[in-house]
Amino acid sequence: MRIIFVSGASGVGKTTFCRKISDTLNSLNISTRHINLDTYIVPHSKRDIPHGYSKKTYNMDELFIDLDDYIFFKRTIYGRKYDHKKGTLSEKNIKICPADFVFIEGAISLIEEITERYPAFVRIFIDSDDTNLIELKKNLLMQTRGYSKNKAKECSEEYMKGYLKFCKPTKRFATHILLLKNLRREYSFQKLNFLFRNSKTHLCDFCKAKISKTSFFGFFVCLDCKKSLDKSLDKHYVLRREHMVKSNV
Description:
Elements: E1 2-8, H1 14-27, E2 32-36, H2 60-73, E3 77-79, E4 82-83, E5 88-89, E6 94-96, E7 101-105, H3 112-117, E8 122-127, H4 130-145, H5 149-167, E9 176-179, E10 202-203, E11 210-211, E12 214-216, E13 219-221, H6 223-233, E14 238-242
Parallel strand pairs: 1-7, 1-8, 2-7, 8-9
Antiparallel strand pairs: 3-6, 4-5, 9-14, 10-11, 12-13
Helix pairs in contact: 1-6, 4-5
């Protein structure tokens, strides 16, 4: 089971990124699962912090119990859906079975307590400049919560304070950093060529063809499968910079 942690600001495209890769891997008969850490957010009525960037916003005990069971013991767990508009959680009825490729996504997914506790195949931070992130959050609040322009601007600036204090510093634990270029979700981005690297002769993990050049997140892939994976990510993200950190893997 390969674990991919994905973090970044609210609305930056973490879920979209995970789904794009998941859909392509599923089409190549690779099983995937998506764990959204919003499952562990404390309902708005029971917390003092308005944003979801601080770990104090989350039920960390429940989070660690579930992730321990899932990652270390390969047990099925159950998630919830968090309603950001109402600040409430649904019942724990989203079944999450073990899979070949697992995305764990959330604003706290790269905090030190998580990166030290769980071995990750890749840790990704989706980044953009702060001004653009405020604009993105403002538009998101207006579209999803019906906020006025002034209220959305005020709230987005408050959210940004939490992002800068709690989330952005975790970027140092990422193995890869992606730059979101178009915040109006038109997705005019370049290919994620950095995901592919040279490798020795091997069999493609997807179609079992002989290969000699490329791999994807540790999977060996032939050129045809590479094109499928590459196509799913084209127009979405571009690598800004990459740095490797010590991993437990």
